[in-house]
Each structure stands twice: as structure tokens, then as C-alpha cells.
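Session log. Operator J.P. requested a structure for one protein chain; no other inputs attached. Running the standard single-chain path with C-alpha cell output.
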Amino acid sequence: MADWGNDLYTGRRSINFVGQSKKWYVWSAIIMIVAVAGLVVRPLNLSLEFTGGSEFRVATQSAPSNYEDLATEAVREVAGGDSSANVSTLGGSTVRVQTEELSGDEAREVSRTLATAFDVESSEVSSNFIGPSWGASVSQQALRALVVFLVLTTALMALYYRNLKMAVASMIALAHDMVITVGIYSWSGFEVSPATMIGFLTVLGYSLYDTVVVFDHVKENTRAAFANRRMSFADAANLAVNQTLVRSINTTIIANLPVVAVIIIGFAVLGPGTLLDLSLALFIGTTVGAFSSVFIATPLLVDLRRKDPEVVQLAKDAEKHRARQERQPAMAASGATSTATVAPSGGSGGRGSTPAPDRGGDVGTQDESTGVAESGGVAEPGEAQTVTGRKVHKYAQSAGPRNQPKKTPRKRRGKG
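Structure written below.
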């Protein structure tokens, strides 16, 4: 895993996320259509805090296996045969019964009937009434908080990246996460409570955090690409996704480990409640958020900026650089072939050149009269060059005069 991550970070190995953007868009569109269809076919299971109604809790030593039938019959005996009841257990011993809004007398009668059905004292049955106005107020406040969050986040990201298209891409990815998360809640029938709304807002922050991490690398890589003109905007952005892929996977797994533990304990021991509602929203949202930051946000950013003049020019410059890089090996191979052949020099009695000995493929010539190498490889220390039967010192210069000035002989004065 570490070697794979290092290869992705350095670019030795690459997954073409940006180049296959259409595939990711199609899959995401299909998932979102299914999610929206769930809201139409099977509306959200809103908790009592949103719909209003009456709630009863029966404390027992251990909930019997037929607790749902007992609670439903007790409610219908008082409220009528067509009355519905949402029955669940909390912690394995407390039975929770939620019904539509009941009057005070009906609520007291249901409490006595439940005590008789579960064979407990009347004091072991508690009742609570929640009006629909309170649920409407909670829904209104949650929507207001969501709108404020989106507006402020869009403005801050536009200022941070100095690019509105980056903020738009991140917001679209955020909306993608929320639609899929809500759709999963709709199809699964999980209860949506105020704790679930808190989880949704937390998921927005996590999804945005993961997208910002990827976009930071995109910003660094594209800035370098605009400076050296060697890589297109799409290639630089795709490299950023590959560099952060392992980090996104590890972060998602580590973040979900405690959440999964809470979900298991909630389903097996605690039953429905704040912890289970919150952990379900976090698990679904963090998983979907990791998907969108890799497969949706960055490819969408590249598509939004594909027609920008500076991005178009950068792609042309990168293509020219790639063409030069591809021509260099061919030019190097042709150059090596031309230097491997030395043309013979003619003329007898004049100054000519003879081929130097072959030393590892380097080719050179030596002047016969001076015994100095004119071109090609340099003799290794300890080697001697032979020219017209005369050896040249191993440290002789390859060309040009020596650094020390020549000494001229003094003329002797004659006697007299």
C-alpha cells in the first residue's frame, strides 16, 4: 500500500480520474436519480419531533418477543382500530411507542392499557406530548442553518482560491453528497430526527474538508504548470487527485471506525436514539463525501475551466513540450550514429590526421606533427597515446599551449 501510494504521489503510476469524468458523471447521475425517486416513492421517516404526536415509554425487565403486537393492540383499543403506532425498543428493556396526537384523557388511558399489557406498574409508563408547531420550528431552523452555511462557504472558498469556479465545483459536490445521503435514508426507512440533522450538517463540513484538501493540491500543481508550461491543467489536476487518493482513503477509514462501532452497539444494545441517528448520518455522509471529492469535484473543476483562454494556451504549450521530449531520443540516436564515423583525410607528404584508438565508443583524431588530440574522448590516466612512433605523456593537454610560458634560450656572448 505504501509503495502504491508513493508511486501515485510521484507520478510513476497514475489513475486517469479526470480523463474518465464522463463515466463518473453517468454513475453519479444514476445514483442521484435513484435517491430522488426514493423521496417520491417512500418519503422520509420523520421522527416525532418533526411531525408531532404522543410518545410512551414502558420500562420492563426484558422486552417480550411480541412487544410490537402488545403495544399496537393497546393503542388501538383506546384510539381506534385504524390508529397506527411506531414501536421500538431502547436498550433492550424499554419499549417506546409513538402515536399520532392524542388528547389528555386518551393519553392517560393508553398509559394504563400499556401497563396492563406489559404487566408493569403504572408508574413504569411515562408519556410525552410534542406539538407539531415545535417540529415545524425545528425544520425551519435547520433549513435556515443550511442556507447560511452554503452561502458563507461559497463566499469563503471563492475568496480563498480567488476563483469562483472552484467554489462552484465544491458546492456541486456538496449537493451531490446531500442528495445521495437523503436518498439512502429514504429507501432504508431510517428515522430522521434532530440528531440526524446535526449529522447532516457535520457531513457537509467533512465533505467540504476532503474537497478542500484535494483542491489545495490542485492549486499547487496548476500553479507550477502555469509557471513551467510543461503540463496541462487537466494533467496537473489529475496528478493532485492521485497524490491525495491514499490520504482520502485512510482518512475515511479511520473516521468511520468509531462510527461503525457506535452503529453496531446502537443496533445490538441501545436501540434507536441520538447516538444511532447521529452515527448513521456520519457513516453514510463521510463515505459518499470521499467519493465525491475524488470522482466529482476535481473532474468537474477541469470541465468548468476547460475553455478558459489561459487553460487552452497552457494545453498547447504542454503539447509542444511533450513533442520536444519525444523528439530528443531520436535526435540523440542520430547524433550518436554520425559521430561514430570518421572521414579519412587524404594527401601524402602533408599534415593529415589519423584515427585515435577506440576508447569506449569515443572517437577522436590526433595531429601527426604535434601529437595533440584534436577532438573526441580524453585518454584515461595511465594511458599513453602513440603518434608517429613517439609517446605522449599521459597528462599532456588535449589542445592549445601549456599554461606556463615558454623559455627562450639566451644567446652566448662572444669573447673579445
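Operator note: The chain has two domains: 2-46+134-317, 54-130.
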